Amino acid sequence: MTPLTSIDDVLALFEAHGDDRYDEELSQRDHARQTAALALAAGADDALVVAALLHDIGHLLDLAAGGTADVPRLAHHERVGAIALSELFDESVTAPIALHVEAKRYLTAVDPDLVDRLSNGSRTSLGRQGGPMDETELEHFRTRRWFAEACALRRWDDDGKVDGLVVPPLSAHRSTLERVARPQP
Ligand SMILES: [Fe+2]
């Protein structure tokens, strides 16, 4: 997998594969835009808005590698995305992305009703991802740096799946992406 080294690389990935729904009921582009809009509405800082926008970029990288939701080529999309983005962004962006699956396992353990509110794709993947955390895992996860950010991102992720909702286009986030990105040589 080639690392993403510019904002243009990131936007080109959405251009090429953002129409794909992967395992959701709306396009990956719309899901990213809605998740970022929820982060903005909640007053998240720029880095967390970028994390919200790019949290599922691992799915786009999988599509670029010839994978599909049913037969992925790049497993663990949260890690794939965080690693691919690590040249461009520091851990204030990549850590919440890397932890957003663990955060689902955490949140479904502390609020079992959440399982029923997950999208079909997310509920199906929860089992593959280890299911809700047990007590030991919960205690450990609460001590992780970026715990709060990962949980916030996860809630926006689960709510950012409304078919047809009108939110700002991807291009509206370009200046935020540029502000948060590491200085480029
Ligand atoms: Fe997501």
Helix/strand layout:
Layout: H1 7-17, H2 28-41, H3 46-54, H4 57-64, H5 77-85, H6 91-98, H7 100-110, H8 114-117, H9 120-128, H10 135-142, H11 147-159, H12 174-180
Helix pairs in contact: 1-4, 2-3, 2-11, 3-6, 3-12, 4-5, 5-6, 6-11, 7-11
Bound molecules: fe (ii) ion.
Fe (ii) ion binds next to loops.
Instruction: Estimate nothing, just give the exact number of structural domains.
Output: 1
How would you state the average pLDDT, rounded?
A: 95
For the report, how would you describe the main beta sheet?
A: none
CATH class: Mainly Alpha
Number of strands: 0
Summarize the amount of helix as a percent range.
55-70%
Strand content: under 5%
CA gyration radius, whole angstroms: 15 Å
Bound molecules: fe (ii) ion
Enter the CATH topology name. Answer: Hypothetical protein af1432
Order of helices and strands: HHHHHHHHHHHH
User: What general form does the structure show?
Assistant: globular
> Would you tell me the structural class of the helices and strands?
mainly alpha
Q: How many helices?
A: 12
The CATH superfamily name is: Hypothetical protein af1432
CATH architecture, please?
A: Orthogonal Bundle
Poorly predicted parts: none
Q: End-to-end distance, in Å?
A: 22 Å
Give a verbal description of the structure.
With 185 residues, this protein is mainly alpha-helical. The protein has a single domain, classed as Hypothetical protein af1432, CATH 1.10.3210.10. 60% of the residues lie in helices and 0% in strands. The protein is built from twelve helices and no strands. The chain has helices spanning 7-17, 28-41, 46-54, 57-64, 77-85, 91-98, 100-110, 114-117, 120-128, 135-142, 147-159, 174-180. α1 crosses α4 (57-64) and α6 crosses α11 (147-159). It is globular. It starts with 6 loop residues before the first helix and ends in a 5-residue tail after the last helix. The mean pLDDT is 95. It binds fe (ii) ion (FE2). Fe (ii) ion (FE2) binds at residues 31, 55-56, 157.
